[in-house]
Structure formats: structure tokens, C-alpha cells
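INFO  loader      accepted 1 record
INFO  loader      residues=125
INFO  predictor   begin
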Amino acid sequence: MKAFHVVLAVLLASLVTLSALAGEGKSVKLEGWVIDSSCAYTKNLDKPISESCAKKFAEGGSPLVILTDNGTVYLPISGTMPATGENQKLMAYAGQRVKVEGSVHQRTGSKAMVISKIEAVKPAK
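INFO  predictor   done
INFO  writer      dumping C-alpha cells
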């Protein structure tokens, strides 16, 4: 009976560890456009129309997202609980091309990213 409890304890500890790891995102670096979510989804844009348009929509409450060249949309999320909106972090980059680093979390076709580093990409000359 004692051996059963030891095995059960080891199994439970393993499950707890696996479930904790499942919540961790994969660390990635990617490049894309900071665009308002409405235009990314309803207008099917490949990049923002303008910085002022992206900022105007974001100021109106539309969440800013990262749109990569292959069309993948990443919803920026906070890594804290309770969660906070990420528009303030992204507003300075609205309508611009950026390089971002962070951890990506996936759930049934959607992707979210906890951004640890973001910087504007200088336009090619």
C-alpha cells in the first residue's frame, strides 16, 4: 500500500510539472507590422494603411496586434495576472514594422505573444 502511495505521488508531481510547462510559451523572435485588429481581420490588410490610422483605431479601443508577412496574427498579451491591455506598450509602434521577441502561446488556431522586447525596423533605403 505504501508503494502505491509513492507511485501515486510521483505521478501527481509529474502531471503538475507537465501542466505547468504546457502554460509556458515558446520563445521566438519575429518581424511584422503593428496594426489594429479590426483591419487585420475585416479588411484583410497585409500592412497598415498609415500610422495615423492605426493609432486612431487603437485610441478608439481596437486592440493592436502583430501581423507577420505570412499573415499570422499575434495578439499581444500581458504575462501577469490579472492581465492588462498591451495597447500602451504598442502605441509608439502603431502602423510601423517591428522586430519583437517574446513567448508565444497557442490555442486552437489563435496565437498570442507576451512581448519581452520590441523595436522599430528601419525602412530599407
